[in-house]
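Methods — Computational structure assignment.
A single polypeptide chain was analysed. Its primary sequence is given first, followed by the predicted tertiary structure written as C-alpha cells.
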Amino acid sequence: MEKCSNCGAENPVGAELCQQCGVEIMAIAQTTPEIDLFGATMVDMEAPELEETIPTASLTLKSGRFSGRVYPLKKNQTLGREKCEIILRDSHMSRQHANIKYLDGKFLLIDLGSANHTFVNDEMVQAPRTLQDGDVISMGNTDLLFNLDEAE
C-alpha cells in the first residue's frame, strides 16, 4: 500500500490517483545506482523525467463580468478563489475548489472536497472525470467551457 501525501489514505501500490481525495500519488522515484571507481560509496540518482507534450486546451469563462476570458491549461492546475493557478472570484467557490491535470492522454477534473461541489454538464463530480471538448464545468456560481484543440 502507498500512502497519499495529501490526505494520508492508503492506496494500492501502482495507483495513479488517490481513491480518497483524487490527488496524484507521487510515484517512488526510479533510481539508478552509481558506484565510484574506488567502490567506496553508492549514490542513488533519480531517473530523468520525460516531458510529455500536451494538446492545446483552455477554459472559457461563461458567466460573470469577465465572461469570455480564456484560461490556457497546463499539465496540472488548481482552480479556486485563493492560492491557485486559476483564481476565480466567486464567494460560493472553495479556496482550492478543483484540479485539472493532464494524465495518460486525458484531461481529468478532480473535485478537491469543495463545499458546493463541482459539476460537469450538470452532473456532480464524485471521482476524477475525463473532460471532453465542449463540457461545461460549474463551480459555485461560475460556469467554464472546456475547449480541446484535437488537431495537434
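Note: The mean pLDDT is 83.
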